[in-house]
């Protein structure tokens, strides 16, 4: 059995192919990288322009006639990007004569993390551009805490933009932060939820006043990641889970990994991170989740849902 997955919810247009044992057979991606923030219509036009070229790259490795199932990331995401993904996936389904199923993008980040790390029943910290959530499974996915405003990745990218760093700013900020010293910035945890817009505007204000970007980046990471570690520790304590999984694009950050690793060691919990190449958005995670859901007969309807929450699958 071979499954193809299509990802097009935001910046990334990605296609991945796996076999029935979840081995990755092909994975191709392109990234829309705007100078300013993401413009949804522009992003979808970027996807449209690159989709067939990307599929050709996949066809160099895979005979599409061998595909049995097609998965599409059908939400949450930016409506124009989701619409284009749906159109592309429907055409492919018609061309191959194979079924198409809708997959929740957040579930896909969790499932690829579980499959590749082999963690069985983790609490998951999901940190990406648009999303920041702490999730565990108990008759479905339950969200224990989340951002009340913007995702941590978007906050990092906006901060980077102020300092002239292009998207994705995360890796560049991480590098510059290595030379910084700590200055106090607003810490905002409300119960199990978080806010990033306060610390973001304060950091931007201080950068614009001429404060050292090394210090601001370092402190921004320290404070935001401490906030994430605090709610994650509380989630592990409350659920009595013994495993923590870190997924999403921001999972690549070494300092965030370090803080979580120390916290888990103190609590006797196992900690693991989705492999770097599958941390950001990709088609492979959609293929894997389509197969997981297909095996458990949880077949999502094929309609796009821009606000589809993982606790509402
Ligand atoms: P995703 O939305 O899952 O594709 O993840 C993209 C986000 O991950 C962007 O906001 C990036 O800035 C962020 N990101 C990537 N690498 C790092 C890193 N090393 N540190 C922090 N954020 C990162
Ligand atoms: Mg994502």
Q: Could you explain the architecture of this structure?
A:
The protein is α/β, with parallel strands linked by helices and 313 residues long. It folds into 2 domains: 2-109 and 280-312, ATPase, nucleotide binding domain (Nucleotidyltransferase, domain 5); 119-277, ATPase, nucleotide binding domain (Nucleotidyltransferase, domain 5), CATH 3.30.420. It is built from 9 helices and 12 strands. The strands form 3 sheets. A 5-stranded mixed sheet has the order 3-2-1-4-5, with helices on both faces. It has a 5-stranded mixed sheet with strand order 8-7-6-11-12, sandwiched between helices. The protein has a two-stranded antiparallel ribbon with strand order 9-10. A hairpin with a 4-residue loop joins strand 2 (12-19) and strand 3. The longest helix is centred in the last third of the chain and has 27 residues, at 213-239. The radius of gyration is 19 Å and the shape is globular. It starts with a strand and ends in an 18-residue tail after the last helix. The mean pLDDT is 96. Adenosine monophosphate binds at residues 12, 128-129, 153, 156-157, 168-171, 174, 248-250, 252-253, 280-281.
